[in-house]
Specification:
Radius of gyration: 20 Å
Oligomer: single chain
Structural class: alpha+beta
Order of helices and strands: HEEHEEEEEHHEEEEHEHEHEEEHE
Distance between the termini: 27 Å
Helix content: 25-40%
Strand order of the largest sheet: 6-7-12-10-11
Number of helices: 8
Mean pLDDT: 95
Shape: globular
Largest sheet: 5 strands, antiparallel
Number of strands: 17
Length: about 325
């Protein structure tokens, strides 16, 4: 371990960006999770060298963004966690009269980019103003809400392989689907994305953002710790509108008021499992499993978690 730390410190420009035995509860919106052996808040200029260093030392790595769609085990994460976040969040705008593009590093926060796009009179990202993730995470899972998703604005993505080699993907190559992209199947790290949007009246954009914020506040437990929608919608249709929301099935299965320890199905929205403040990762995991089992028994439908689970749950 000492040799790994020594080599990483030679690479990192900020000594505070490398931390040992870091509580992952500080890096997930659920507010749970044990310690990571190494936590690396990486910068764009360091990423390739960090990846190769970890590979050469045989250290397994896990990549996270803002931790908004993760459930990390109480046992933590063995090896290194690379955080694509505040040290990799550059954003550049190129706005024309009838449209513009935004070049974002993967660690840029999605709500921040959405607000800046609105300020530049660019429309199409209003749906993202309340999604607490990074650009990289949003591309990875084709994040969306209120009728919009990343596939509607992303035109290109850059990534890095496990060997530290750069890759470029056109929109056609990204393979966007419902809450998925080609990166769901590839062991590559998204490093950036290019977004393209038309211009619109700033007042109209502002009004749409206000409307979406109001709908979110009324329908979702935004004042509670969660990872957003816990389960994917269900169905075989190609359009999101053809799919059945998980919350309907959860209610049909009688799980509207289900809870285990400090984990509970939100009273405001049955599609959200929330941490009431005292939940462990195991409480949340067990509740997710119980919900899925009851829904399968009562309705015959298999729910698939939208939340990505990392670590050991047994």
């Amino acid at each position: 371990m000492e040799s790994v730390i020594a080599d990483l410190r030679k690479i990192m420009h900020d000594e505070n960006a490398l931390r040992l035995d870091e509580p992952m509860s500080q890096h997930t919106t659920f507010g749970v999770g044990g310690e990571a052996d190494f936590f690396i808040d990486v910068a764009s200029s360091e990423l390739r060298l960090v990846i190769r260093c970890l590979r050469d030392h045989g250290v397994p790595l896990t990549v996270i963004g803002n931790g908004s769609n993760l459930l990390v085990s109480d046992k933590g994460i063995r090896g290194a966690v690379i955080c694509i976040g505040k040290r990799m969040n550059e954003v550049a705008f190129d706005v024309k009269e009838v449209g513009g593009s935004i070049s974002c590093a993967a660690g840029a926060l999605l709500p921040s980019v959405a607000r800046k796009a609105a300020e530049a009179s660019l429309t199409g990202l209003e749906f993202a103003t309340g999604i607490p993730g990074t650009i990289g995470g949003a591309v990875y899972m084709n994040a969306g809400a209120f009728g919009g998703d990343m596939s509607g604005v992303v035109t290109a993505v850059t990534a890095m392989t496990e060997d530290g080699e750069a890759r470029h993907y056109s929109k056609a190559e990204i393979g966007f689907g419902y809450r998925s992209s080609i990166f769901s199947k590839k062991k590559e790290i998204i490093t950036g994305a290019t977004l393209a949007m038309p211009t619109d009246d700033p007042a109209k954009i502002k009004a749409r953002i206000a409307e979406i914020k109001e709908k979110r506040a009324q329908s979702q437990p935004i004042d509670k710790r969660s990872a957003g929608s816990t389960f994917r919608k269900v169905g075989t249709g190609n359009a999101v509108d053809d799919l059945t929301p998980a919350w309907k099935l959860i209610q049909q299965a009688g799980m509207k008021d289900a809870h285990i320890g400090g984990a509970r199905v939100s009273e405001k929205h049955s599609g959200f499992v929330i941490n009431e403040g005292t939940a462990s990762a195991m409480d949340i995991y067990n509740l997710i499993q119980e919900i899925a089992e009851k829904v399968k028994t009562k309705t015959g439908v298999t729910l698939e978690p939208e939340v990505k689970m990392i670590g050991e749950f047994d």
